[in-house]
Specification:
The protein is mainly alpha-helical. The protein has helices at 2-17, 36-56, 59-66, 84-90; strands at 72-73, 81-82. The protein has one domain (2-22, 33-94).
């Protein structure tokens, strides 16, 4: 269970922070004039929706809805898993596992 949890947390971090997020706030905007607060709010909203999807269905279905095609999974003590399809295939036996969280902060680096 701990290995699954650490894998899901790593995926969550990659999904939330490692992939460019296209939000309503950034569509058609000039990159130099991005509304940072709107982007932060959009990221927190998306993260909360991701958590709600996991609670309503299960973690595997939520990840299926939110993973990018080129996602990368970094499981603890194992080789990296490349691609959405391969990651989801590895989650097939966790259909009853629910992962929930409350996003607290979104920041930029």
């Amino acid at each position: 269970m701990n290995k699954l949890f650490s894998t899901l947390v790593a995926l969550l971090l990659l999904a939330a922070g490692g992939y460019p997020l296209k939000t309503e706030a950034s569509k058609g905007s000039n990159p130099d004039k991005t509304d940072v607060e709107a982007e932060r709010a959009a990221l927190l909203r998306t993260d909360a929706e991701f958590s709600k999807a996991s609670a309503a269905k299960n973690a595997a279905e939520a990840f299926a809805a939110y993973l990018a095609d080129d996602a990368l999974q970094l499981p603890a003590g194992a080789n990296a898993v490349f691609g959405r399809a391969a990651i989801l295939a590895g989650m097939a036996d966790s259909s009853n596992y629910v992962l929930t969280w409350q996003p607290m902060k979104a920041d930029e680096e």
